[in-house]
Amino acid sequence: MDTITHKNAATFIHLSTLSQYFIPFGNYIFPILVWSTKKDESDFVDYNGKQVLNFQLSLLLYSLVLIAIAVPVFIITIFNNVPFDAIVHDDNFVLNNFNFDANMGLLTIGIMAVLIFGVLKISEFFLIIYGAIKTSNGEKFKYPITIPFIK
To answer: Phi and psi (nearest 5°) for 74?
Structure first.
């Protein structure tokens, strides 16, 4: 039987991932700290700590893949359309002949990667809140699209 203290600790693990908006890597540091101190006291806290960390690690992996797709696409598109002599010799650099037609496929891939990244970050916020609510009610919550790194 899980006590209110265990439910609160598990809920705080979920909510502590929101610290990423104020402290870099707070979404890993604070859940690990709370989980590691409370995981031996309750299976409920241990389960939720693993779920939160697996979700955050999965999002990190997905974000890195999307960034690895988007950044080179945009760099290649820029370098294909900007003449080097305009960069080196001209003080009044203006893009007059930027050709989107030749790179439309690459740009579409890059824009889709950025949009998917945005949807991922927005859904992360709402899933964290939803998981915290479910956990505070004493229900086990499993995040979608999560790779089980920690078992």
So the answer is: -70, -35
